[in-house]
Write a structure and sequence with these properties.
- By secondary structure, the chain is mainly alpha-helical.
- The protein has a single domain, classed as Tetracycline Repressor, domain 2, CATH 1.10.357.
- The protein is about 60% helix and about 0% strand.
- The longest helix has 25 residues.
């Protein structure tokens, strides 16, 4: 507006310029405040002062937006890993665990989305549900000399620990931990399980681990984890 010019009563304030990331940020803010059960496209439009239909120029629907919310937070995890020096595989796991815990603490209503929605491929386990986080995990642990079998065993135990501990922490912060219902039709949204056949052409590490990751050792892992827990409890009681 030129200097000295005043807006007349007939002029409307300029509408903010919409973008996909602006919509995603609004969705994160709404979910942080209200939880994940009262989430509609109209809610996000109201937050941004626009009609819900205008959002569909940037997101295909509610499911697409939920996936974008999860992707944004997981990108923060990858960013933190890239910024932190990796001195050992143990230190790496500590950094990764703290990055995920930060999501559960800062966004307790959103963390269950990361934990319960379909991962990017059926052989991945939440909360390490994205190919980018998984690629980082596999490359880092392999780089420290762990065998493929050791890497996968670590991944299974580590992801189980994170999932149980952080879902409990989110629940203690009054988050709804049950998965939200997926709408049948939502603006041609890309449902998360549509990524089940993810293209791994540019992910040789993940392709190498895919067979091991697809194996089911749930019963064995449960018994091993229980044994370690009992051993830790016995040591604690003896102190």
């Amino acid at each position: 507006m030129a200097a000295g010019r005043r807006r007349t009563s007939k002029e409307k304030p300029r509408q903010r310029r919409l973008s996909r990331q602006l919509i995603v940020n609004a969705a994160i803010a709404h979910l942080d405040q209200h939880g994940n059960l009262r989430f509609t496209m109209r809610d996000i439009g109201n937050m941004l002062g626009v009609e819900a239909m205008s959002l569909y120029r940037h997101v295909t629907g509610r499911e697409d937006l939920l996936e974008a919310v999860v992707t944004t937070l997981l990108d923060e995890v990858t960013g933190r890993l890239n910024e932190t020096p990796t001195l050992s595989w143990q230190a790496y796991l500590q950094t990764l665990a703290q990055a995920f815990r930060q999501i559960a603490v800062d966004h307790p209503h959103i963390f269950p989305l990361i934990a319960t929605r379909h991962p990017a491929a059926p052989w991945l386990r939440p909360p390490l549900r994205s190919l980018e986080v998984m690629r980082n995990f596999l490359d880092t642990l392999s780089g420290f000399g762990l065998s493929d079998e050791q890497v996968v065993k670590t991944y299974r135990s580590f992801s189980s620990f994170l999932l149980g501990s952080l879902l409990l922490e989110a629940a203690q912060r009054r988050a709804q931990t049950a998965p939200i219902a997926e709408p049948g039709v939502d603006g041609d949204a890309h449902l998360p399980h549509s990524d089940a056949e993810a293209d791994l052409e540019e992910s040789p590490t993940i392709r190498r681990f895919r067979r091991l990751l697809s194996e089911d050792h749930s019963a064995e892992e449960f018994e091993a984890t229980m044994a370690m827990l009992l051993e830790w409890l016995a040591l604690s009681a003896a102190r």
